[in-house]
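Please predict the structure of the following assembly.
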Amino acid sequence: MIEPLSLQPLPEAAEALRADVRRFLDEALAGMSADRRARSWLGFDAGFSRALGARGWIGLALPREYGGGGQEAFARFVLVEELLACGAPVSAHWIAERQSAPMILRYGTEAQKRFFVPAVCRGELFFAIGMSEPQAGSDLASVRTRATPTATGWRLKGQKIWTTNADHSHYMIGLVRTSGAPEDRQRGLSQLLIDLKTPGITIRPIEDLTGDRHFGEVFFDDVELPRDALVGSEGSGWEQVTAELAFERSGPERIYSSMVLLDTWLEFLRASKSADAAALALAGRIVAHKATLRSMSVAVTAKVGAGASPMTEASLVKDLGTELEQLTPIAIADAIATAQATLTGKASGSAGGAEKEVPAELLRALAYITQFAPTFSLRGGTREVLRGLIARGLGLR
Amino acid sequence: MSDHELAEPFERLLADACTPATIRAIERGADPAPLWSRLEASGFVDSLVPEAAGGAGLRLADAFPLVVVVGRHALPLPLAQTMLVRALLAREGLTAPSGSITIAAQTRVASDGAIVCAATPCGLVADWVVVALADGWRVLPVAYAERTPSGVHASLRADLRWHALPADAIVGSAPLESAEAGAAITAALLAGAMARVLEISVAFANDRVQFGKSIGKFQAIQHQLAVMAEHVAAARMAAEIGCAGVGPLPMPLRAALAKARTSEAAALVAPMAHAVHGAIGITAELDLQLYTRRLHEGRADYGAETHWNRVVGRALIDSGASALDFMRSDLIPSNDELRP
């Protein structure tokens, strides 16, 4: 059985950060449209990331020795909550800070830590994650990209796909086969730090249905890598990647992807005074769910802070969070369409001429989240993978 | 005192005093007085009463694990409600009567002066009912009420009617948000009952063999139970938020959140448990029904999810705040409130 998650306080020291972050964001995001802010952790802005880094807000929970802030996990929770709720364009440094730097600190050599982590914390070094391949999605252990040992290091051949920010990143941490055959599955996999400027690498962005080109394909055609491209130990890539996915699942980003859309809709309801009983019930339902999930996410963070590895609990929060975040655009679309029909009907007969049209900016933010929402239950583990993990936690497998 | 230290002796008491056989007997009309006497003698009824008045002086937040245990055991008496009302009485310096006290869900004063409490939870077994009236609250003796069972098999709900205010009614003067009080308590009861339903369902899935293996090995069943576990976990957290605060009474908006979220979960968890069990699940003989019937009743008591979602939504719109600021200032308990 699963131990219940219970209410945990956010330490005062972490809360103390909030006002500063909000002041900074009010200025930095002034004038940015809702549909741009709705992209948030898919919004790439290298200048914004450098500005955050200059304030010490990248790697807040990483050790000071390597350029981090040396604060506890909750400080990062507050920072990330504010960044995502406001829709800050955090994509450039996001993966490097959340996954790559902690991974290098955990498994890397001293030289690797000194070379990579301080630059990540300054917001100057961006990472991509090379996991998925055309034939390896949820079945990640079937990767075929292979690094063969050479006299000077590794020769890399193969292909990665769905790589977020592939064409904007400086490095990729790739999961590749360094020994054995595809039938060996988890055995013989390793993680390599790949400088994406190395000759033999071709990056081809993929346009998504929203018109963005946030992800892409990366081809490796006999790419020569130095020996110290290996991070961690040869053959331990699977264990390292599994630990990395735990960082990816447990954060507040699983409940704030649709926050800009929600707030933009609430502003419309207030301005147009069009909140009918159904809209009130929907707005209430979304925040009641979200406040509950936020408390659950804090409880998971507390467990991580106490040294536990709450895989089942993190999976519960992510799957529930995803469900709410996917329901949000679908339900708000219905509410907005209802308001449009109702307001138009009233306008013909009403005096006063108050502007009650649904703002185009709200409609664009809605369209973006609606179209992009299917990825919420893909990235960081599909719904099916998460439910399998929960079933294991329940003692069913 | 940790939650565990507080809840464990209580858990033992209910495991012994409130067996499924006892629940079934009371639902068939057996006298609940012997069970109530034992609960009253245990002292837990005065958990929320200030220490100066002879109670344990707990906040509702501290007593939350106890209310969850009441739900886990499908107690057929309003013990958790009694705890809250006895604190209310003590706060006004009034002596609590002996006997169990439920909270009215739908109160109306008829044109002839009659007081009508429709669909009162535990109305068939309670000794007293607290009702909120325009000029304060009253604790009314059920013995003097016309008591009409709901007519639903095994249900303890009843309509109660007093032709006039009874002479021995206890009169309180402070305003009481009785629907919110009932909602917060019921949310915690639902969270407890849902946790039990999940345990029963997981155990059944591991035991029941079809196609040569336990049905819990099938991915389709695993995923249903995983979704149940998600809603059970969320319901527990929402119910804890509903009881969080510094006093013996809930904060109204948090009670609204708690009842909305737990009611929604109850309406999902009960059918999923039955889907996992198959036909045996709907038999009177299997204990599952003791809990799933309560999930559906409790979901509706004091208002179901849409009513309370609207209450939260109205407050959100009127606040003018961003969703995050509203959640942090009006719904999620502050650090000060979370300190023991």
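The CA atoms of residues 334 and 384 of chain A lie 27 Å apart. Chain A has three domains: 12-125, 128-235, 250-393.
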